[in-house]
Fold:
Amino acid sequence: KLLRVLRGESPARLLESYDVEAGQAARENILHSTRATDFITPKSRISRVFRDSVLGLARHYPFARALINSGRLSTPCCYELSPLDTPCEDGFSGGIPPGASCPDAPVTVHGRKSWLLNELNASNGEFTLLCSHRSIVSGFAGLDGLQVFAFGVDFDDPDGVAMARFGLAGGGAYLLRPDLHVCARWREVTESKVREAMRKASGW
Structure:
C-alpha cells in the first residue's frame, strides 16, 4: 500500500485501510492466542476437566482431535470489514468471500504440475482477475494494472479442486488485490464492474 502511494498509484488515504485491516487481524490473533493458552494451561477446575477429557478422547476418536487447541495462528485473517472490498451481490452460495485470502489448489500448466498461487504470484504489484473460462478473458486483457488468468487457458484444474474452492462451477470471476486477497467477485462480470472495484481497492 505504501509503495502504491509513493508511486502515485493510490491516494494517501489508502494507508488508512491498513489500520482497519491490521486492527482486525490483531484482535483475531489475540482471540486465538487467548483460547490456545487457556487450553494449554486451564484457568479453572472445569476447564481442566474439559481439556483432559478432550486429550483422552483424542487418542481414539478423530472428532476430539479437532478440539485440541495448541495454537490456531496458521489461518489467514479475512478482512471482512475492509473498506477496500466490493460487497458480493451475485448470490454466491460458496467460494471465497471478499476480504479473504486467495486459497491454493493444485493445477497443471502445459501438463506440468503446479500450484495456483505459484502461477498467480508473479503479479508485479498488479491486480489479478481470475476467470472461470476463456470467454471472459478477451474483454479485460488491455485493462491497465490488471493481469488476467483463466482456467482452461493459463492452467488446468484436472481434479476440479480449484474451481470447487472458488465456487466457480457456475461461472464467474474473482478480482484479487496485489497481496492476493479477494476484493470482489461476480457471476456476471463487466469492464465497468472491474474498473470500479479496482478503484475502490486502490483507495480512490
